[in-house]
Every structure is written in structure tokens, then in C-alpha cells.
Amino acid sequence: MIGFLSKVLGRAPAAIMEARPQDSSSLVTIHAHSFPIGWSESEFERLLSDQSVIAHVARANGGRGAIVGFLMSRFAADEAEILTIAIEPNQRGQGLAGQLLHRHLGRLAAFGITRIFLEVGEDNRPALRLYEKTGFRQVGRRDGYYPRAKGAISALTLRRELA
Fold it and tell me: In this model, does residue 102 exceed pLDDT 50?
């Protein structure tokens, strides 16, 4: 469907590629649009320069346009944790998060990662649907972990086996 719409509208679909430290300023903006507490540019630069961090970006217009989403994880031994995933608000609902996750999981598997974890707010229904659809299962819960305007909500810890 995305490919069809892109052809009709005259734009190429987003391209998924590895993130670079120079992408940090774009990631800061997208992250700030997605989470109540954003990360700084120096935090992103540090993470993207870390050899134990893998990150992918979605670039609009077949890779020639702006970054419209990203996913970042850290690994150790044969396990990884998704640190964050974010999509520009005007790009949500088009399958970009699923595309990023699919590419990212493939890259992690190529590194020998066999198990991946993440935490997600229990109120984040779109993310929970995506993770369930892609084989993640709840293995834990942190009550009152994420602050919200009307009080803290719980974080659900999810896991997926890659092997």
C-alpha cells in the first residue's frame, strides 16, 4: 500500500539505513516530538559513536529526504535492548516503525543477538500492537515507571527471541 501511494503521489517510500553521529540533531527533534523527556544532541552523538549501539533511520523520499523516524538499541554478548524508537507525528500510521523494526532485528540477528528486550509504557497502544505483531511477549512490569501529567504509569518489559 505504501508503495502504491508513493507512486500515485510521485514520491519514493522512505529508505531504512544505518544512523550516523551527524544525524543526531534530527534525532533530537523527532525524539522530542515523541516523548515527554527528550534526549540531548550530545547524548545521541555519544550513543551513535558507541560500538555497542546499533541505530537505523528512515529517510523520506527513497533516502534523499529528511529523517522521519529512527530506532536505536544497545547490545552486550548475545542480548540487546531497544533504547528508543520514534516516528515524526505526521509520518505515523504508515508502517515506518514496522519497517525500522524489521530491518533492525535482522541486523541484530546478523550480529549474533539471540534475545532482545524493551520497555514500553502500558498506555502506548500503537507500540504494544506493533511489538505483539512482531513476536514480543511481556516478561515483566515496572509499576509507576513513566511520569505522566496525571501521574506515573507502568512500563511493560517485553522480550523476543531472535534465534
Answer: yes
Q: Is there a domain that residue 1 lies in?
A: no
For residues 81 and 74, the answer to whether their CB atoms sit within 8 Å is yes
pLDDT in tens, 70-80: 999 999 999 99
CATH number at residue 121: 3.40.630.30
Cβ-based neighbour number of residue 65 at 10 Å = 14
153 and 131 in contact (C-beta within 8 Å)? no
Interacting residues of 119 by C-beta distance below 8 A, sequence separation 6+: 142, 145, 155, 156, 157, 158
Q: What is the tens place of the pLDDT at every residue in 121-151?
A: 999 999 999 999 999 999 999 999 998 888 8
| Rounded Cα distance, 8 and 149, in Å | 41
